[in-house]
Structures are given as C-alpha cells and as structure tokens.
C-alpha cells in the first residue's frame, strides 16, 4: 500500500516499526564505539551527545580518534565533514522522493537524521515518501545509537582493562564489515582500500608528512585518493545507455 493511502499516523508508525531492526544493529555497533570513546577519556553523557548529533560510525570514530590526539577543532570539523560527505549526496537523492510542496524544514530535518540504513529503507518505499516515515525510523534508531555509545563508555569504566581491550577489537570488525562487501563487488574500491592502508602506514613514517597530526594526514590522504579515483575511474551514470536513445 502506498503512503498516499495511509494516514499520517500510520506512516509514522510504519517508519518506527521498520526502524527496529536498524536500532538493534546500531546498539551493538555503538557499544563498541563507546569502548573507543572511553579509551579517549569521554564521559557517558558526552558519548551520548556525540552520537545523538552525529549519526555515523566512521565519522564518530574519526572524531573520537582526534579527541584522543588532542587535535584542534578545525581539524576535527574538516575531517568529520569529509568522512560524512556521502550524506550530502544521500540527502539530495532522498529529496527527490518528497512531494514538491514538502517544506524546507522537513527536508532539512530528514537530512539531519539520515543514515545509510534509513536512507535505504526510505528510498525503497514506492512512490512519493511522506517525511513522517523517515522521522519514525529515526525516532527508533538514533536514540538506540546514542544509548549504545553511552553504555559502551559506562561499561568501559566498569569492566577490567583486559575485557575493554578485547571489546575494542569489535570496532575493527565493524569497519571490515563496511569495506569488504563493496570491495568484493568493485576492483577499483578494493584497490583504493588497499592503497589507503599502505599510504596511511607510509604517511606515519615519511619525513615530510609524519610530523603532521593524525587528522591532517587523514584529510590529505582522503582528498588525494578520492580525487585521483574520481578523475581516473569516474562512475558511469546508471541508466545512461537507456536514456541516451
């Protein structure tokens, strides 16, 4: 049933229902992120605030890493902006699913709370999307993300150091789960992942760049690798052949 035939309350409740599996996954990942936050010296309320405002594991991990390194604010802001840049594209794509009369306030509101998973379930909806649907999913998923981060920090302060170190490994497993599927589908992505590891390792040891802070090296490598990949291996627009004729 399309959303035009559902009431606004029903659309909102469906979004909340569809957000439950996302919330469960978020809680587990955010708990591991909280362990990293604890190692960076964050308090539980600080971790909660970070996660309720920044809904991205990679962006938050980059920010927590820079907090641990006592990086300046501008470096932290620029690194997180680059890391989360994909959400700008997601928001633009998702705005096309709204009715033309949808207000700017709703467009900004949905853009603020968009995540990979919420973007996916919203784009999969047939026809035009009522903003209440992603709002419902956000109401379920985002608090779970923030709560998981806070509880991860709390557990990190209670559990023995050996257990905390073991739990920290789970965060690396999360990143492997993020990069392996697209790398298996696209050789260019796989090459960039490998090149990213190598250049990051080298940048920490080369005389000209090893003196830079961690955040500056991340910014520099991201811009160089992403820019080179975009220039050398531009993505073909989907449906381009069909539309050409």
Structural write-up:
The chain has 245 residues and is mainly alpha-helical. It is 76% helix and 0% strand. The protein contains twelve helices and no strands. Residues 238-245 have low confidence and may be disordered.
Helix and strand topology:
Blueprint: H1 8-39, H2 44-53, H3 57-68, H4 73-83, H5 86-95, H6 104-112, H7 116-123, H8 132-158, H9 161-185, H10 187-203, H11 214-232, H12 240-244
Helix pairs in contact: 1-3, 1-8, 1-9, 2-8, 3-4, 4-11, 5-7, 7-8, 9-10, 10-11
In short:
By secondary structure, the chain is an all-alpha fold. The chain contains 12 helices and no strands.
Give a short account of the largest sheet: none
Poorly predicted regions are: 238-245
Whole-number mean pLDDT: 81
What radius of gyration results from the CA coordinates?
Answer: 20 Å
Q: Span from first to last CA? A: 33 Å
Percentage of residues assigned to helices? over 70%
SS element count, helices: 12
**What's the β-strand tally?**
0
Strand content is: under 5%
Global shape: globular
